[in-house]
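Project channel, design review

CF: Before we commit to the Ligilactobacillus agilis constructs, I'd like one complete example in the thread so the newer folks can see what an input/output pair looks like. Taking Glycosyltransferase family 4 protein.
RD: sounds good, go ahead.
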Amino acid sequence: MNKKRMAFVDLSNFHDWPMGGMLEYELALLENLTNSFDIDIWGVSVNGKTPAPITINGRIYPINIFANVVTKGKFKIIPNFWKGLLLATKKKKIKKQYDYIYAHTASCLVGISMIEKSAKLIYHQHGLNFKKDKSMMALIQRPFYVLAQKSANIVFVVSDDDSVKKYAHNMQDKYRVKARYYPVKSPVHLDKFDRNKILTKIRNTSNINNFLYTGRLTAFKNAKFLLEVFNLYVKRKNSTAKFIIAGSGEEEEILRKKIQDYSLENNVTILGAVRHDEIYDLLEKAEVFMTASNGEGVSVSVAEAYAAGMPVLCFEVPGLEKQVIDGVTGKITKNRRVEEFYESLLYVSENYKELALNCVNESKNYDSYRISKFIEKCIIQD
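CF: and here is what came back for Glycosyltransferase family 4 protein:
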């Protein structure tokens, strides 16, 4: 039986731009969706460099380029987010070529909706944290979120069930959006984790010595706050504790300065951008995952921390307040005070084994195959 044709579209080169959990999310979905659909991948070049094809399940998939994004130099004038609209220039290659078009950036779906009326349009909203993001980029993107959802037949939202229901009702009431909404989690390759090794780590850990953060180093992610908390832990509790920060971003130099100011050079390591296949080793060695993010969808980093048996410390913010089960898979700090977050850290340290085992059990809900099959079912039956 012939497979239905699908265009899988994002403002990404599907290799290393943009960095972060969203790219890993999409690659995990593709690994399963390519078994059920005949897929073409549409993406971008970065600074003029055309991405190499990617291999999924033994098959080579070229990246069909619709735009070039610029991350440095004097030509970085037009916001890259807007370049999703350039899909409208690919009318001859896209119109009436697909049964489904599945876009992961709002501007991409808006661009496609200008030229394609016959395919089922699917938009994947990666979280609801934008509602609290006051940055210029968030302000640029917000109108496109509305337009994409007005154009879509199906909208997947990476968040918990209750939040998606409220969000869908608001969009339908305020903007007359007619799309069907589905809440989804973030997929994790559980087979990438050595369960026996993780259970041995949990069993043999007596003192919490290794902390980890993975993600972008931006004001919104607020990793500098974690340094302030970790500094208290080193000074008051464990002078040999280690904190690995795997990520890069505009606040990297601020973090490096804080490390010097707190004399934590022997305790904190900033690795910069790390290939995702190298993240698994970091996860298996660390005991506690920390994030001070101002909001997430359903965090891939947190889901992977669960799979590695790592309790999570976070704030009570959109996404994380539902994903992290307070006192069960980690500890949620309600107020943005260093001392209070530090107390949460001590709670996790004192209850580590129980929390860690709960995390391993909770990780089953993020299995990439299960989530991909749910998405596939929603697309086909809708």
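RD: helpful, thanks. The CA atoms of residues 173 and 350 lie 47 Å apart.
CF: The two ends are 20 Å apart (CA to CA).
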